[in-house]
Amino acid sequence: MELLSEWGLNNRHFEWMDYAACAGADPGLFFAEKGWFAKYGEAKKMCAKCTVYKDCLKFALDNNIRHGVWGGLTPEERAQKKRDDRGG
Q1: How far apart are CA 49 and CA 64, in angstroms?
Q2: Is 39 exposed, middle or buried (0-12, 13-18, 19+ CB in 10 A)?
Q3: Cα–Cα distance, 76 to 60 (Å, whole number)
Q4: pLDDT higher than threshold 80 for residue 50
Q5: Average pLDDT over residues 19-29
Q6: Which residues contact 23 (CB under 8 A, 6 or more apart)?
Q7: Could you write out the three-class secondary structure of the chain?
Q8: Does residue 86 surpass a pLDDT of 50?
């Protein structure tokens, strides 16, 4: 987590990551290459069981993360959420 602190990210509270359902999971589930979106289904199932998915999603939105599944949402779903939250 020290590395994350050095990246200059917003929302610098990373303790929630210790409680994430995906801790120790294969990152490939969450960061599928283009065209491999079927893998995202497995990631989303894991997120659905996670107790800290809201913290994860907030982290991704606060830091404009454009890759991977965070908080149960794909990059496209997060972009749509941002538009919806802005009212447009």
Answers
A1: 24
A2: middle
A3: 12
A4: yes
A5: 90
A6: 17
A7: CHHHHHCCCCCCCCHHHHHCCCCCCCHHHCCCCCCCCHHHHHHHHHHHCCCCHHHHHHHHHHCCCCCCCECCECHHHHHHHHHHHHCC
A8: yes
What is the percent of the chain where pLDDT is above 70?
76
Which tokens is 42 given? 């497995």
Asked if residue 22 lies in contact with residue 39, where contact means CB atoms within 8 angstroms, the answer is no
**pLDDT mean across residues, the chain:** 82
Q: Which amino acid is at 75?
A: P
Instruction: Name the pTM for this structure.
Output: 0.79
Query: 6 lies in which domain range?
Result: 2-86
Domain tally, the chain: 1
Partnered with residue 70 across adjacent β-strands are: 73
